[in-house]
C-alpha cells in the first residue's frame, strides 16, 4: 500500500494515509449535493474519533478541482476556528479526506432538529464570535470565504466552533500581487442555495467587484439564520431576492420589536423584507408568530446584524471591529456552548451500521494509489 499525502499531527497524534488505521463506525450525513458522504470513524492507533468524508468524483474535472481546492486551502491555513485537514487517500474515483469529528454537527443540523425557532442569544454570540475569529484570520491571510452559512459552522462536545466550506474560498493574491477586488462568482452548489448568503456587490458582478467585506454581509445573514432558525430569502424567487438585496432591504432578527402581534401572512413577509424563511403553512405561521412575538433579543444583537447587512460594503465593520462590538460583552469565561444547547445529542458510533460495515470491508481489501491527478 502506497502513501498518498503528508500526515498531520493534532494533539500529538499522527494521522497517516493508511486506511487500515481507521475503523468506520457509522454514516453521519450526505453533503455537497450528494457527491460526498461523511462517516464517523476511529483512528485505531490512538482510539481518537475522526470524520472521513468520502467523495464520489466522476469525470467532471470541475468537481475534482473544487475538492482539491478545499484540501489545498485547509492544508495552508491553521487556526483553532477553522476545520483542520488531517490526511487523505484516493482509490479509483473515490477520495477520502480525514478531519476531526465535530460531534454536534453543523449549526444547520442543530437548527433543523432541535431549535427550529433559533438558538438562544448567548449561544448565537459564542458561535458568531468564533466565526468572526476565523474570518479575521482568513482575511489577514488575504482569503475571502464566500460561503459563510450555518451548514459550514461545525460544533463539538468540547465547545469548539470551526468554520468549514473552504472549497468556495478565493485568494486576493494573483501571480504574487495582491488584488484590491475580486470579480468571479464562487462555484455554484447543487441547487444554487448559496446565493441567499452572498452580498449584493458579489451578486451584481460589476466592474467594482467585491472584497473581504462580502463575508461580513454573509455573517449578517448567518445572524438571522442562527437567531430565527430560518434563512432569509429562502422562499422567494432568485430574481426577487437579488432585487431586494440590491435595493438595500435588510433581513431582520425576529422578536417582539420587529414582529409584533397580531400580523397576517402578508404583514409577516413585509416585516421580514419579502420573506420570513419560516414557511407559509397556517400551522407554521401560527407557531412562529407566538415564539417571535413573545421573545426579546438584545438591542446590541439587532445593531450588530443591521451593521453587517449594510448595502454599502465600505460602511460595514470589519471582522476585527465586530469582535469589539458590545454584543459580545455578554459572553463570560464560564459560558460553555454545549450546555447552552443541551438538548442536542452528539454523534455516537453505531457499530451495527450496515453501510459503514460494507464500506469497511471494501476498504480493507483495496489498494490506495497515488495519482498525478490527485497530487496535493
Task: Give a short synopsis of this structure.
The protein is an alpha+beta fold and 376 residues long. Helices cover 33% and strands 16% of the residues. The chain is globular, with a radius of gyration of 21 Å.
What's the arrangement of secondary structure elements?
Layout: E1 8-10, E2 13-15, E3 22-31, E4 36-43, E5 48-56, H1 61-76, E6 87-91, E7 94-100, E8 105-106, H2 107-113, H3 121-140, E9 143-144, E10 153-155, E11 161-163, E12 170-171, E13 173-174, E14 177-178, H4 200-204, H5 213-228, H6 238-247, H7 265-271, H8 282-294, H9 299-308, H10 319-323, H11 337-340, H12 354-365
Antiparallel strand pairs: 1-2, 3-4, 4-5, 5-7, 6-7, 8-10, 9-12, 10-11, 13-14
Helix pairs in contact: 3-5, 5-9
Give a description of the structure:
- The chain has 376 residues and is an alpha+beta fold.
- The protein is 33% helix and 16% strand.
- It contains 12 helices and 14 strands.
- The protein has helices spanning 61-76, 107-113, 121-140, 200-204, 213-228, 238-247, 265-271, 282-294, 299-308, 319-323, 337-340, 354-365, and strands at residues 8-10, 13-15, 22-31, 36-43, 48-56, 87-91, 94-100, 105-106, 143-144, 153-155, 161-163, 170-171, 173-174, 177-178.
- It has a 5-stranded antiparallel beta sheet.
- A hairpin with a 2-residue loop joins strand 6 and strand 7 (94-100).
- The longest helix is centred in the middle third of the chain and has 20 residues, at 121-140.
- The radius of gyration is 21 Å and the shape is globular.
- Mean pLDDT is 84; it is low at 1-6, 270-277 and 366-376.
Amino acid at each position: 500500500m502506497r502513501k498518498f499525502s503528508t500526515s498531520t499531527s493534532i494533539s500529538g497524534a499522527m494521522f497517516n494515509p493508511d486506511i487500515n488505521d481507521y475503523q468506520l463506525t457509522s454514516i453521519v450525513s450526505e453533503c455537497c449535493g450528494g457527491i460526498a458522504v461523511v462517516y464517523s470513524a476511529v483512528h485505531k492507533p490512538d482510539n481518537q474519533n475522526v470524520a472521513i468524508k468520502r467523495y464520489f468524483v466522476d469525470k467532471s474535472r470541475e468537481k475534482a478541482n473544487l475538492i482539491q481546492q478545499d484540501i489545498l486551502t485547509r492544508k495552508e491555513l491553521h487556526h483553532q476556528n477553522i476545520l483542520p485537514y488531517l490526511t487523505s487517500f484516493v482509490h479509483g474515483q473515490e477520495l477520502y479526506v480525514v478531519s476531526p469529528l465535530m460531534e454536534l454537527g453543523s449549526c444547520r443540523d442543530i437548527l433543523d432538529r432541535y431549535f427550529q425557532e433559533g438558538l438562544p442569544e448567548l449561544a448565537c454570540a459564542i458561535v458568531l464570535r468564533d466565526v468572526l475569529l476565523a474570518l479575521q484570520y482568513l482575511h489577514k491571510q488575504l482569503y475571502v470565504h464566500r460561503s459563510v452559512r450555518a451548514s459550514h459552522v461545525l460544533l463539538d462536545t468540547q465547545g469548539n466552533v470551526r468554520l468549514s466550506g473552504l472549497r468556495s474560498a478565493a485568494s486576493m493574491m494573483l501571480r504574487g500581487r495582491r488584488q484590491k477586488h475580486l470579480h468571479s462568482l464562487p462555484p455554484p452548489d447543487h441547487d444554487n442555495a448559496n446565493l441567499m448568503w452572498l452580498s449584493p456587490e458579489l451578486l451584481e458582478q460589476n466592474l467594482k467587484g467585491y472584497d473581504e467585506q462580502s463575508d461580513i454581509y454573509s455573517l449578517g445573514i448567518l445572524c438571522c439564520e442562527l437567531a430565527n432558525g430560518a434563512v432569509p430569502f429562502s422562499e422567494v424567487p432568485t430574481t426577487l431576492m437579488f432585487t431586494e438585496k440590491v435595493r438595500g432591504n435588510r433581513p431582520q432578527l425576529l422578536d417582539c420589536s420587529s414582529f409584533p402581534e397580531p400580523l397576517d401572512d402578508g404583514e409577516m413577509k413585509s416585516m421580514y423584507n419579502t420573506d420570513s424563511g419560516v414557511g407559509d403553512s397556517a400551522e407554521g405561521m401560527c407557531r412562529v408568530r407566538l415564539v417571535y412575538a413573545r421573545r426579546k433579543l438584545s438591542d446590541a444583537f439587532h445593531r450588530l446584524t443591521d451593521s453587517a447587512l449594510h448595502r454599502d460594503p465600505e460602511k460595514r465593520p470589519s471582522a476585527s471591529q465586530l469582535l469589539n462590538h458590545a454584543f459580545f460583552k455578554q459572553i463570560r469565561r464560564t459560558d460553555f456552548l454545549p450546555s447552552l444547547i443541551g438538548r442536542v445529542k452528539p454523534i455516537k458510533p453505531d457499530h451495527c451500521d450496515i453501510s459503514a460495515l460494507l464500506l469497511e470491508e471494501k476498504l480493507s481489501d483495496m489498494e490506495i494509489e497515488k495519482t498525478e491527478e490527485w497530487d496535493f
